[in-house]
C-alpha cells in the first residue's frame, strides 16, 4: 500500500459515510409527503421480504398524500398492513387498488424531537469520518515505520487526510443544517 492508496481509500470511505447520512436523512419525515419515506418498508412477497418499490408504484398524489398502487390485486392488503405496522406512524386507507397514505402535519414538539435525532445522525457521521481519519493516519505511520515513505511524505499525507476530514465534516454540517431548516419550516 502506498501513500496515494491510503488517501484514496480514506476519501472513498468518507464519501460512503456521506451517502449513508443522506440516505438516513431522506427517511426522516418533514411533514411533507415524499416517496422516499416508504423505501425501507419491506412486504412479504410470496414468502420473500421485498421493498415496497419492488411490488408497487409509489407516487405523490398531492403535497401531503402518497399513492401506492400494487401491481398485483392480492398485494393491496399486504402492502397496506406493512405501511401501517412500520415505524413511521402512518395510517393508510385503501380505495380500490390504490392505497392513499396521508402524512399528518408535525407538531412543534415533534419537529424539535426530530431535529435532535437528525443532529444525532450528523454526530454519528462525523464520528465515522474521524475514525476513517484515524485509520488513515495509522496506516501512514505504518508506511513510515516500514520505510515505505519518507517523513515529509507522511506529514504531507496526514495534512491531506486532515483537509479531507475537514471537507467532509463541513458537508455533514451543511446537510444537517439544511434538514433542520426543512423540518422547522411549517
UniProtKB/TrEMBL annotation:
Among CDD domains, the record links this protein to: RRF (cd00520)
Its GO biological process annotations read:
cytoplasmic translational termination
Homology family: Belongs to the RRF family.
Coiled-coil segments = 133-167
Q: Where in the cell is it found?
A: Cytoplasm
Keywords on this record? Coiled coil, Cytoplasm, Protein biosynthesis
User: Per the database record, which ranges form the Ribosome recycling factor domain?
Assistant: 21-184
Q: What is this protein called?
A: Ribosome-recycling factor
**Superkingdom per UniProt:** Bacteria
